[in-house]
Amino acid sequence: MNKETKNKVIAGLTEELNKVPVFYLADTSGLTVESTNKLRRICFNKKIQMKVIKNTLLKKAMEKTGKNYDGMYDTLHGVTSIFYSEGGNVTAKVIKEFRKKNDKPILKAAFIEETVFIGDNQLETLVNLKSKNELIGEIIGLLQSPAKNVVSALQSGKNKLAGIVKTLSERETN
Q1: What range does the domain containing 59 cover?
Q2: What is the greatest pairwise CA distance in the chain?
Q3: Helix ranges (DSSP H) in the chain
């Protein structure tokens, strides 16, 4: 690969890293062609983009973004695949599910909304992360819950409430 081509690849990677809020780095070495194709198909169906990338080019692209990728640089050795996705836990779930039948991919690192996770031991934590939409849904549910309880109580006791109001109004007139 000549210098001009490398610079184009680095520029493209830098642009991608600046656009995506979430990406994972994993070791996919040793996967057979058949296994790799299965992984790619699963990723495609989950709207995850997967690429095998040269570590030096990725490191240069990461440095050019100006973002803080501390700790991730040390993971850039061996075969590295990068996974881009919209949700923070989607890729982690795919990796965990895929590893039920395969030894790899091994999680090297993940970058999720300005937070860096290093090592395969973080996979379970990443699987349990909630997406932005899931969190918003939970908050809305929590906010609606008290209002629903009040409305439910008023509706279930409307006959009692009407009876109490009627009794009180009759007392005042007597």
Answers
A1: 3-129
A2: 101
A3: 3-19, 33-45, 55-65, 90-98, 123-127, 132-156, 158-173
